[in-house]
């Protein structure tokens, strides 16, 4: 997967541009609680939402540009039971609460996120569903949508929400 995260000063404009795209699918608005756990490498979070519930391990560089992210995703049948096990076994690092609008165009996922403590953001994820997409093609697709949605280089951020909430 190739992804970017950027500050979004005008979520309504981004929403409007997305909804004008052919083949756009609006999945819905998810109230998400992500519990991050303290692990030696990468990031491990349990996502609890009304749309998405999953255990996610990911490893990626902290850089502003489009970046490769290695993701392992598990969708539990019982997220509450899984949380109980994780909290008992691992120290929790931080909890991130957000409102997330979820959109898809084929294999590209878009989020418009709102966090009360941080503001609004846009994420673009180009997902290689078959593990055979060329990295340059994925970066080009990401750049196409960055241009379309008017994401500027200065808007890009390098850190996850969990990092941003921990940075003084």
Q: Can you walk me through this structure?
A:
The chain has 168 residues and is an alpha+beta fold. It has a single domain, classed as Beta Barrel (Hypothetical Protein Pfu-838710-001), CATH 2.40.320.10. The protein contains four helices and eight strands, in the order E-H-E-E-E-E-H-E-E-E-H-H. The chain has an eight-stranded antiparallel beta barrel. A hairpin with a 3-residue loop joins strand 7 and strand 8. The radius of gyration is 16 Å and the shape is globular.
Number of strands: 8
Number of helices: 4
CATH topology: Hypothetical Protein Pfu-838710-001
The main sheet orders its strands as: 1-5-4-3-2-6-7-8
Number of domains: 1
Explain the layout of strands and helices:
Layout: E1 2-7, H1 11-19, E2 24-37, E3 43-48, E4 54-60, E5 67-74, H2 79-89, E6 92-105, E7 108-115, E8 119-126, H3 135-148, H4 161-166
Characterize this entry briefly:
24% of the residues lie in helices and 42% in strands. With 168 residues, the protein is of the alpha+beta class.
Considering the chains and any ligands shown, give keywords for the structure.
single chain, Hypothetical Protein Pfu-838710-001, 24% helix, 4 helices, alpha+beta, 168 residues
């Amino acid at each position: 997967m190739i992804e970017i995260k950027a500050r979004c000063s005008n979520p309504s404009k981004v929403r409007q541009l997305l909804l004008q795209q052919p083949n756009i699918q609006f999945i819905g608005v998810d109230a998400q609680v992500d519990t991050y756990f303290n692990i030696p490498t990468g990031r491990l979070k349990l996502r609890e939402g009304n749309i998405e519930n999953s255990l996610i391990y990911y490893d990626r560089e902290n850089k502003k540009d489009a970046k490769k992210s290695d993701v392992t995703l598990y969708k539990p049948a019982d997220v509450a039971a899984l949380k109980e096990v994780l909290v008992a076994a691992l120290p929790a690092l931080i909890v991130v609460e957000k409102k997330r609008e979820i959109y898809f165009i084929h294999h590209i996922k878009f989020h418009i996120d709102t966090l009360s403590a941080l503001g609004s953001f846009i994420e673009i994820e180009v997902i290689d569903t078959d593990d055979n997409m060329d990295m340059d093609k994925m970066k080009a697709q990401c750049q196409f949508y960055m241009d379309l949605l008017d994401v500027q280089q200065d808007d890009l951020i390098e850190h996850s929400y969990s990092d941003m909430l921990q940075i003084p």
